[in-house]
Amino acid sequence: MDSAPADVGLEAGVSVPTPLKILVAGGFGVGKTTMVGTLSEIPPLNTEQTMTEVSEGVDDLAAVPDKRTTTVAMDFGRITIDDSMILYLFGTPGQTRFWFMWDELASGAVGAVVLVDLRRIDDCFAAVDYFENRRLPFVVAVNGFPDTYEFPESTVREALLISQDVPLLWTDARDGELSRSALVSLVEHALSRAS
Question: What global pTM score does this model have?
Answer without folding.
Answer: 0.78
